[in-house]
Amino acid sequence: MLRTENVLHVLISFLQVALRSLNLGICPKLNSLVIEASSMVVLELKGCGVLSEASINCPLLTSLDASFCSQLKDDCLSATTTSCPLIESLILMSCPSIGSDGLYSLQSLSNLTMLDLSYTFLTNLQPVFESCSQLKVLKLQACKYLTDTSLEPLYKKASLPALQELDLSYGTLGQSAIEELLAYCTHLTHVSLNGCVNMHDLNWGSSGGHSLEPTVYGSYGIFSQENVHESMEHPDRLLQNLNCVGCPNIRKVLIPPQARCFHLSSLNLSLSANLKEVDVACITLCFLNLSNCCSLETLKLACPKLTSLFLQSCNINEEAVEIAISQCSMLETLDVRFCPKVCSMSMGKLRAACPSLKRIFSSLTPS
Ligand SMILES: *[C@@H]1O[C@H](CO)[C@@H](O)[C@H](O)[C@H]1NC(C)=O
Ligand SMILES: *[C@@H]1O[C@H](CO)[C@@H](O)[C@H](O)[C@H]1NC(C)=O
Ligand SMILES: *[C@@H]1O[C@H](CO)[C@@H](O)[C@H](O)[C@H]1NC(C)=O
């Protein structure tokens, strides 16, 4: 079957082999590929960097990973979407030769729910908004050429109504675009903004968060009945996971009850070196990672379900930690390793402040 060193014809259907999964990522010199496989479900071409001609005829294919196939062009993608209409997951990460025509061809994939376009030079996402209406997961890491208006249809025109996960990490999206996105796309459950230099303070209190009206919510507690009635006008945020790891311009994170984060369970702000103040009141939060937030000084938590708190290498002082955890009646894991102001001799004090603690990680050397 191997015609030359660089050309691979896989005619699996004729061999009557029910091959369901194939990984050709080990063939970096492959430049031409013909696959006819009637029962193939998963195909990985990851790293086939010189592959320029591919004829993929796999009518049952649901998952295609073509990341780092830098020579793959629109005509090839279009032909593939026609011959493999059941694709649900498509990874085109680092496929810089794919443009609008290729993306418009995704409309043949009526079951497409996951699309990864990370590390591409795309400037226009309109073809995605128009062609991928079922999309649940969209990954756009390090798409440095996307402009502030590229994502506007998401929050101004309610494009991609089924979208749950959005990854905009290492992008250059501006602050107001990020703010609007977070304020209006309340249906997103997982948002990643790691390494976003334009990610500024996260202030979902009365002054920030465009969709909030402090006069309506300001005086009500999170547990009050009144809020339940108001939820018709101001939908709850469905956000479960928010990752803002390594965002150098975040200084303050304020998530009060009126932010309506009734599903948030994990918040990862680690490595955000200038983060000074964290004030979170969230009844569902379980996991908070503030490791390597070396500027952290103020920590206020009203998070009754918090089980894990990571404060490794934070410069926060012991009393602030003690007060913060005293409000967390379900906290089991606390990491205070390499915290210069938290003395390893004081673990008893921390345990006393928070009797539910099961594991405290601390540095051995007293500071
Ligand atoms: C693909 O989507 C169609 C509806 O568009 C649905 O009927 C079908 O079950 C889906 N197929 C798979 C394999 O999920
Ligand atoms: C938090 O971020 C770090 C660094 O990216 C990652 O290793 C870790 O898995 C994240 N945790 C969660 C729960 O997302
Ligand atoms: C917390 O964040 C740090 C730094 O990003 C990471 O190394 C660590 O794995 C994270 N912890 C967990 C439990 O996710």
Observed structural traits:
367 residues, alpha/beta, Leucine-rich repeat, LRR (right-handed beta-alpha superhelix), binds 2-acetamido-2-deoxy-beta-D-glucopyranose
Topology overview:
Blueprint: E1 7-10, E2 21-23, E3 32-36, E4 42-44, E5 53-57, E6 63-65, H1 74-83, E7 89-91, H2 100-104, E8 114-116, H3 126-131, E9 137-139, H4 152-156, E10 165-167, H5 175-184, E11 190-192, E12 202-203, H6 214-217, H7 225-230, E13 241-243, E14 252-255, E15 266-268, E16 277-281, E17 287-289, E18 298-302, E19 308-310, H8 318-326, E20 333-335, H9 347-353, E21 359-361
Parallel strand pairs: 1-3, 2-4, 3-5, 4-6, 6-7, 7-8, 8-9, 9-10, 10-11, 11-13, 12-14, 13-15, 14-16, 15-17, 16-18, 17-19, 19-20, 20-21
Bound molecules: 2-acetamido-2-deoxy-beta-D-glucopyranose (NAG) (3 copies).
The site of one 2-acetamido-2-deoxy-beta-D-glucopyranose has 3 residues, from loops.
Estimate the mean pLDDT confidence. Answer: 87
Q: Any idea what the radius of gyration is?
A: 24 Å
Number of beta strands: 21
Any ligands, ions or cofactors bound here, and which? 2-acetamido-2-deoxy-beta-D-glucopyranose
CATH architecture grouping of one domain: Alpha-Beta Horseshoe
